[in-house]
Structure formats: structure tokens, C-alpha cells
Model the fold of this input.
Amino acid sequence: MRRVLAARPAALLGLAAALLSGCAPGEPPAHDAAVEPTAYVCLLPGEKRMLVAELFFGRNVPGRAPVSEAEWADFAAQVITRYLPDGFTVHDGAGQWLNPSTGNIVRERTKILTVASERPRPDLKDRLTAITEAYRSRFRQRSVGVITRNACAAF
Done:
């Protein structure tokens, strides 16, 4: 066996390259509309497929004290509740990001909002955008972080 492997290093190198090329990052395969995606099955009884969004609200405000608990409570009552009347969850976090203008690491307290919405809800994008724009405007923020993903949930 050793002699066979030693005699064919180029072939083995080619085989290894072919096998590893499947792991290399690249363009995702094109989606063929005629091919149905694999069905996603929820694990627990009573779960439904939902879209989950997490929004990250930094509390540092240029030129003033950070967003206070009272200011956050007012924002949640006046803005978030209006756009997400079915409910949401908020918890505290500790954020960190690199300021591209200064190259400095910025650490700040963060509010993290999580909302799960039964799909399809065509206006959810508009609702989330309204919330992020209102926060950016009210508290002079560059951005609000947003992550969306598909999930299963039961309430």
C-alpha cells in the first residue's frame, strides 16, 4: 500500500484538492424555482414556523449621557408597542463595535429586542424599519443592529 501511495503523489494531491474544494467558500448554488426546498420540520409539539428578529439598540448618545431606563421605557411604550402590538421581549446586553472613523473599540450597554412573527407577515419589514429609524433619529445613532432568521416557536 505504501508503494502505491508513494507512486502517485500527484493523484493523491488532486484527489485531496477535489475533496476539499467542496468546503471552500464561494457563491451559493443557484436556486431552481422548480425544485422544492427540503421541508423544515419543527421539533416540539405546538411549534409553528416563524420569523425571529433581534434588534440591538446601543445606548451611548453622542454629546450626552447614555439612554436611561426611563427613556428606553418611553421609547418601548410609544414606538415599539405601536409597531409590535402582539408582543416582544427586551433584555440588556453589553455591546462592542469598531468605530470605522476613529479605529477605536467602543463598548456600550445595549437593549436587545426579540420578536417572533408567524409567517408570512408582509409588513414586518416596514415595522422593524420604522422602529430602527425612530431610535436612530431620537437618540442620534448611526445604526441599529438587526438579525433575522427562520425558527420554530410555540407560545
Confidence is low (pLDDT under 50) at residues 1-33.
